[in-house]
Amino acid sequence: GIRLAPKEKLEVPVLFMPAEMKIYKAVVIINVMRENGENWPYKVTAGSNTDLKRNVIVAENGETQGIVWIYPINGTPEAPQQKSVVIRCQARQRVEQRVELLLIGVIMPGATAQPDAGNSAEVDMDESSNAPEVTDGSSATLEFLYELQYQSDEIRSQLESLVGMQLVEKEWDTESRIVTLVFNVVFAPSKPMRYEATVVIQCTAGGLWKFPLVFIATEPEVDDVINIEAVGLNKESIVGFKLTSQTR
C-alpha cells in the first residue's frame, strides 16, 4: 500500500538481531503495480528475456500486471570484539607464542541443521587460509576458516613476512558450547615496531569472531662496541667498520 511518485526513492529498512551464532537467511520481495490497477501493455512472450519473465506478474491477457524485485539477505552473527593479545619480541630475535582463542556460542553438530557450504555467508579470505575440522569422533564436523587481516596495505607489507600463524590444537565443550582454537604464532621482527592485526575466524555453521593482535618489537641488542684510542691531543684517530644491509 505504499504510494511512490515518479522518480521517487523508497528505502527499505532491514533489522538483524541474531539470537544464536548461525547463518540466517531471508528474502525481501518488492512488488509494484499501477495505482489505478491497470496493466502495462507490454506482453511477455516465449521470445522475451528469461530474466524479464521471471520478474514480472503476467495477467490472463498476457499483459504485465506487476513487477517484482527479489533481494536475498544472508545474516552472519558477529561476536563482540575480544581483548587484544600482545606478541612481544626484541628486534632481530624470534619468538613463538601459544595463543588460545575461545569461540563462544558455537552451534554444535546435531544441534541444528547445517546449511550447504555453497550457501554459507562469505568472508574475504586469502587463498592461504586454512580450513581445519573440529570433530568429536562422530561423522558431524565443524569447519572453520581463519585469516590474519591487516589495517592497511602498508602494514601488511611491513608485517606479513615477519609473522606466521598455524593452528596446532582444537577442542570443544558441548555443554558450554565453547570451541577453543590454539594457534602457534611466530614473530621475527627485523627492527623496532608496533603494529596491530586481527585474526578473523568464521564457522561454516554460522558465526564470525574477531581477535585483535598487537605485535611489538623492542630495541635490538647493541651490535658491538667500538673503541677509539687517541694518538695525541688535537690529532685525529680513525677507526673503520662495515655495515651490511639485510635487504636490497
Automatic annotation (TrEMBL):
Signal peptide segment: none
Positions of region (Disordered): 115-136
CFAP47-like immunoglobulin-like domain span: 78-218
Classification via InterPro entries: Ig_CFAP47
GO CC term, one of those recorded: cilium
Pfam families for this protein: Ig_CFAP47
An example Gene Ontology biological process: sperm axoneme assembly
Superkingdom per UniProt: Eukaryota
Annotated protein name in UniProt: CFA47 protein
Organism: Erythrocercus mccallii
Lineage start: Eukaryota, Metazoa, Chordata, Craniata, Vertebrata
Gene: Cfap47_5
